[in-house]
């Protein structure tokens, strides 16, 4: 028998898992998971797998559980400069983390897709700097702070900044030559120092903000630099 159920967090699913029976299918934060009785954490990208094998001092196969992954609270230096990683959607299960460290994935030049843990509140400096292949990154609603150069020189085509972000650093999306549109969901403009947010983004055409807040954004410090590109989210 299979079970289908929705969970917001991995920890909620794990707490209920024994009551579901196996095999089962669940959806955790929008991602479908099919698991048998084994409680083994798996990743699709072999380059990520080798990093985890090294960190857990294992050979050949991963024997860590989801609980092992959720107990990790810092991955500083684990992935920086790894040019082999392409996809890391399983990063979203590192729910013991409340921040993405500075330079965490900097110079991961093959990285195309990543999902961030739904527990992080801060994306630190250069966390995704110089990731020119990066096309997909989902910033969770838990994020409050995005620091300087966080996505500088990334390959992103569009970005969505969730409503709880309160402040954004300098040069966050600077040199993002593929960037075409950015969406800011907060009713109140996030604080920033100046107009460097999208420096050298030649293809940026539209900055979407809540319709009722357009005037507020245009008057806010730094946001006036993008006033001519602003449109209400309702028009997307």
Low-confidence segments, ≥5 residues, pLDDT <50?
Answer: none
What is the number of strand segments? 14
CATH class value of the domain at 73-235: Alpha Beta
The topology string of helices and strands comes to EHEEHHEEEEEEEEEEHE
The CATH topology name of the domain at 73-235 reads Leucine-rich repeat, LRR (right-handed beta-alpha superhelix)
Structural class: alpha/beta
- CATH-wise, what's the superfamily of the domain at 73-235? Ribonuclease Inhibitor
Mean of residue pLDDT? 92
What is the tally of helical segments?
4
General shape: globular
Strand arrangement in the largest pleated sheet: 5-7-9-11
As a percent range, the share of helical residues equals: 10-25%
Strand content: 15-25%
Distance between the termini: 42 Å
Characterize the biggest β-sheet: 4 strands, parallel
The assigned CATH architecture of the domain at 73-235 is Alpha-Beta Horseshoe
Q: Please tell me how large the radius of gyration is.
A: 19 Å
Topology overview:
Blueprint: E1 6-7, H1 10-16, E2 24-28, E3 31-35, H2 46-55, H3 66-70, E4 87-88, E5 99-100, E6 113-115, E7 122-123, E8 136-138, E9 145-146, E10 158-161, E11 167-168, E12 181-184, E13 206-209, H4 214-219, E14 230-232
Parallel strand pairs: 1-2, 4-6, 5-7, 6-8, 7-9, 9-11, 10-12, 12-13, 13-14
Antiparallel strand pairs: 2-3
